[in-house]
Design brief:
four-stranded antiparallel sheet, alpha/beta, seven-stranded mixed sheet, Rossmann fold, 2 domains
């Protein structure tokens, strides 16, 4: 049941609105919405605007956070985040260190799988944006810290780096990972991937690199074929200690 203060999504006629249940109203293209009528409802219920248009209620998921979060840079795509989760076997027993928080998108996805996520962002302006956005998700297993990953200590099952990675970052990450754990580095260019791969190969027992490609399909009355949109996003280097 939805309580006052809960974040929900209203969807209808191709429009999507992220709102908070409780007092007040929201003006939309489909008419005014009385937000108090959301309290006590269940996901899947239908409400009507004052213009008589119907809106379906659903609870936010990580994919909605990707679409709605305040951007402080270019976030990783959900498909790349999914590869990090799948290639490491991330699970509820893991403590994940996510470095280069940015908008907090990867941290939110990880928190839906891992037991705990610590995400660090050295740029204070990005840290403030991510801290506020992540607080809005209501997730209690994410800690956001305003610190350079090179200053982090402790032990983690998985370390994920999405930043301007240098040899020093890989070496320091090795010291933070428990035996059997993983380092995953997302890099947009071959040259950065090479630095990660070569450095990790001297330290870790297993190292692999992958290009992330996913093609959408276009379907029309004429037929179905791969979309001409760019399907490449970046490179993931995975190293196991």
């Amino acid at each position: 049941m939805i309580a006052a203060g809960d974040r929900v999504i209203l969807s209808g006629k191709g429009k999507t609105y992220v709102v908070r249940a409780g007092e007040g109203s929201l003006g939309t293209d489909l008419g005014m919405v009385d937000l108090s009528q959301l309290t006590g409802k269940e996901p899947g219920d239908i409400i009507t605007t004052k213009s008589g248009k119907e809106l379906a209620i659903r609870l936010p998921r990580a994919t909605d956070f990707f679409e709605q979060a305040k951007r402080s840079g270019a976030p990783m795509l959900p498909r790349d985040i999914g590869l990090v989760i799948g290639l490491t076997g991330m699970n509820k027993n893991d403590h994940v260190l996510d470095a280069g928080t940015g908008s907090g998108v990867a941290a939110v996805f990880f928190a839906g799988v891992a037991g705990k996520v610590t995400t660090c962002e050295r740029r204070e302006e990005f840290f403030r944006i991510a801290e506020e956005s992540i607080r809005e998700t209501g997730l209690s297993n994410i800690e956001v810290v305003n610190r350079d990953v090179l200053e982090m200590d402790g032990q983690y099952d998985i370390v994920h780096l999405d930043l301007g990675i240098t040899k020093e970052h890989v070496i320091h990450a090795y010291s933070l990972i428990r035996p059997g754990g993983y380092l995953v580095c997302y890099t947009p260019f071959f040259e950065q991937m090479g630095v990660v791969y070569d450095t990790a190969s001297e330290l870790f027992s297993e190292v692999t690199a992958h290009e992330s490609i996913m093609r959408e399909m276009d379907r029309s009355d004429r037929g179905t074929r791969p979309s001409t949109k760019v399907c490449h996003s970046g490179y993931l280097t995975v190293a196991r200690k």
